[in-house]
Write a structure and sequence with these properties.
Layout lengths: L2 H29 L2 H9 L5 H8 L2 H31 L1 H29 L1 H16 L2 H17 L13 H13 L5 H13 L4 H4 L1 E2 L6 E2 L4 H11 L3 E6 L1 E10 H9 L15 E4 L4 H11 L3 E5 L5 E6 H9 L13 E3 L5 E4 L4 H8 L11 H9 L8 E4 L2 E9 L2 E9 L7 E5 L9 E3 L1
Parallel strand pairs: 2-3, 5-6
Antiparallel strand pairs: 1-7, 3-4, 6-7, 8-9, 9-12, 10-11, 10-13, 11-12, 13-14
Amino acid sequence: MSSADWAIVALIVVLYVASIFLALAETAFVRMNRVRAMALEEEGRKGATKLVQMLANPTETLNSVLLLVLVTQLTSATLLGVVLEGLAGTLGVVIGVILQIVVFFVVGEVAPKTYAVQNTDKAALSVSGFLWAITHFPPMRLLSRGLIGLANVLLPGKGLKEGPFVTEMEIRQMADVAAEEEVIEGEERRLIHSIFEFGDTVVREVMLPRPDMTAIEAEETIEDAITVAIDRGFSRLPVYEDTTDNILGLVYLKDLVRRARAGEQNRPVSGAVREAVFVPEQKRVAELLREMQTDKFHMAIVIDEHGGTAGLVTLEDVVEEIVGEIVDEYDIETPALEYLGDGSLRVRGKTNIDEVNEALDVELPDDEWDTVGGLVFNLLGKVPDEGEAVRFKGLEFRSERVEGHRIASVLIVRVEDEAPSEPVRAAESSDTPGRAVNG
């Protein structure tokens, strides 16, 4: 080998070592996220501040790293092929390819990238200075941007776009993995998912429907209103005139008690009415929560598209969408979902369809109705009798308890033969109670 060959070999070694370092830097930077970098910055770790700034727009740094990786690897591979071909001809080229696959892959790719995956924080902090330097090196920035611009010209509509660099789905998946690996508790995982679902939820899905509302007529006495509030365990009551479609406002139990102590217990409750907040049923609960915090109110009347009363929503209803059901001393706790010994599922009529979909791993439609009761109503096309059932999507929905025009409880059973919406009635024979026959 000549002195020129030895010089080329030395250059190959330098490029090879550089490619190892760049492989580590690339993986460490890709594995690091801005939230983690901000946490390291709060801990006062050296280099964390630079990571936070670079991760605000990671494409600039990543493009520079990838360009250097490409240059070092292609150049070293080309030079190695030239040297070995000069020494051994075609055999040298074959040897060069084997070296590239075995040595360069195992030592130059697998080892540094595995280390970066296993020690992301340490690796990212150690290369932050280098990454900062190449990101802000003007010639490198111009070259990488020029090449990207050329790619965008050659591939119109396929160009690089800015963020988001972490999607909602990725965060949800990270929470699932963290819970499986016992990094976080299962309840913390559920809370993370609830927060994302909270942003898509509308008031109609969390409100108390009008038939379930406890309201008092404006001409009722203050003493009567106090009795209703205490019996039902409420601190606020809607006040209506003629019908609940005409809500005048709200009365507070503390106001009623104060007036009663002043001798006004026989006066009409209309004199103690406070102004109510009215919201549309399609309003997002996240927006309503902000308004409740800002304007300091705990209850709102929900109106439908025709201006009628659809129901009411409280601060507790909104918060429960995030933290789950809150049961106090006045609540009668009845589970929304109850698994029975025969494999069936008992649900309340007002149970949200999404809960049933998750519990049974099915995809019941929720575009036209929100609750299981609404689904059964629409499938049957009428108010069902107790024991009447309908089959849909491989499930049988049996109206277990009907209160007036409302379905209070439904039994859901999987059936073998899936058929279109098919009404089914309970057999009247006393020796086979609850047995279903086609009607």
